[in-house]
Amino acid sequence: MNVRSCARCLAPVVWAYTSTGEALMLDLEPHPEGDIEIVSTIGNPLAVVHAQPDLLGAERHRLHRTTCTKPPPGLPGAPQAPHVAGSDTSREAADALDGTTTEKDRRAILDYLERHGPATDEQIADALGMNPNSQRPRRLELKDQGLIYEYGRAVTASGRKAKTWRIKIQEQLA
Asked: Residue 19, exposed/middle/buried by CB under 10 A (0-12, 13-18, 19+)?
C-alpha cells in the first residue's frame, strides 16, 4: 500500500480506487465505523464501499475528508478574507464574512478537486452551486496556502481558455 500524507492535516492516508475509477482518499488506519474495504494492493488499491456492517471482521477504512478537521501545521489556518485596497465597502464586506462560511467553502473546493481532479473556476463554481464572486477568492486563498496549484488550461463553456486547478496531493499520484 502506498502511504501518502493529507495536504491539509498531514495525516497518513492511502488512495484507493472504486471499480469505476473514482479516487478515494482514506484514513490509513482501519476504523470500526469504516465502510470502505481495500481488497487489493497490487497496482492501484481497489476500494469496495459497503452499505452493510461487516460480519466477517474485514478491516474497513473511513473517507479521510470525514475525519480531516484541521489545516496542516505551519500553514495559515483561516486567511483573512481578501478585499479591494482603498475600498471601505469592500473592507466592510470582507470583515462581515463569517470565518466558518469561508472555511466551509474552501473545504468544499478542496473536496471537489480531491474527488474530480483538475477543474476550472467555472467548473468548480457550477458543480458546487457557488457564486463565482465567492468561489474565486476561496480558491485564491487555497492557492496562497499552498494546497492547490495551477495545473493547466481547459476550454470553458463560452469557448475561452481558463486555468485549471489541482489539489497538491494529486500530483504525487500521477
From this structure: exposed
Side-chain-facing half-sphere of 155: CA atoms under 13 Å? 3
| Pair (53, 99) in one structural domain | no
According to DSSP, the residues that pair with 17 across neighbouring strands are 23, 46
Query: CB of 22 within 8 A of CB of 115?
Result: yes
Supply 36's cell numbers: 470502505
- Does residue 72 belong to any structural domain of this protein? no
Tell me the residue range of the domain where 125 lies. 88-171
CB 120 within 8 A of CB 162: yes
Asked if 72 and 7 count as a contact pair (C-beta separation under 8 A), the reply is yes
- Cβ count near 130 (within 10 Å): 19
Query: How confident is the model over 121-150, as pLDDT tens digits?
Result: 999 999 999 999 889 988 988 888 888 999
Task: Report the greatest alpha carbon distance in the chain.
Answer: 64
pTM over 0.85, yes/no: no
The answer to whether residue 76 is domain-embedded is no
